[in-house]
Write a structure and sequence with these properties.
It is a single chain. It contains 9 helices and no strands. By secondary structure, it is mainly alpha-helical. The protein has one domain (2-184). Helix 4 (72-94) packs across helix 6 (113-125). The longest helix is centred in the first third of the chain and has 30 residues, at 34-63. It starts with a helix and ends with a helix.
Length: 196
């Protein structure tokens, strides 16, 4: 039951984009079409899941025993950077079109604060290895959900007239704000009612 709670929490209640406001750069930059939004979401989900495992192992098997916990952020950033390079090579080799569509935003996963955020939250919440992995995957799914919802909104807005002052990024931010308000309906009380 704890894993269900983790999934509900990180997909809906603590969605990194819509409630934590982490990872807004790819949220606005990659959400222009659904294909690139899904590709970016899958890449971020993979990096978050694997980074959650590796950072948990680094922290609990290396940093804590050697009394080097103060190097947590630095070591987590190094792990995330290596994972992003790995994902970038795979996408470039297997899907050149997606690699082109993601452009600069793919290497920017390294500095995506949502990825670092889940790694740090796993340690702060005291999750074990499997809970950390679950939280990473759930946070990635929540990130993907927000990207896909935003890409659908932006694709529909392209079909309808929007005042010149609001075209592009301004209407995207307004839409993102309205989505964030809608996600505020999900709260801890909902989780308590669902899971008893």
């Amino acid at each position: 039951m704890a894993y269900v709670a983790i999934f509900i929490t990180y997909i809906f209640i603590n969605n990194f984009i819509l409630t934590q406001f982490l990872g807004l750069c790819p949220f606005i930059g990659v959400s222009k079409n659904s294909e690139s939004a899904i590709g970016m979401g899958m890449a971020v989900t993979f990096v978050m899941g694997i980074a959650s495992i590796i950072t948990w192992l680094v922290y609990n098997l290396l940093l804590l025993p050697l009394d080097l916990a103060y190097l947590q952020t630095l070591s987590f950033i190094l792990v995330i950077a290596a994972l992003v390079q790995f994902v970038e090579m795979i996408i470039q080799k297997n899907s050149p079109a997606l690699y082109q569509a993601l452009g600069i935003f793919l290497p920017l996963i390294t500095t995506n604060c949502a990825v670092l955020g889940i790694a740090i939250m796993n340690i702060t919440e005291g999750y074990n290895l499997m809970e950390s992995f679950s939280a990473g995957i759930a946070a990635g799914i929540g990130f993907t959900l927000a990207l896909v919802l935003m890409s659908n909104i932006r694709e529909r807005m392209d079909l309808h007239p929007v005042r010149k002052a609001f075209k592009g990024v301004p209407i995207a931010f307004i839409s993102g704000g309205l989505m964030a308000l809608a996600f505020m309906a999900f709260d801890k009380a909902l989780l308590t009612n669902l899971l008893g």
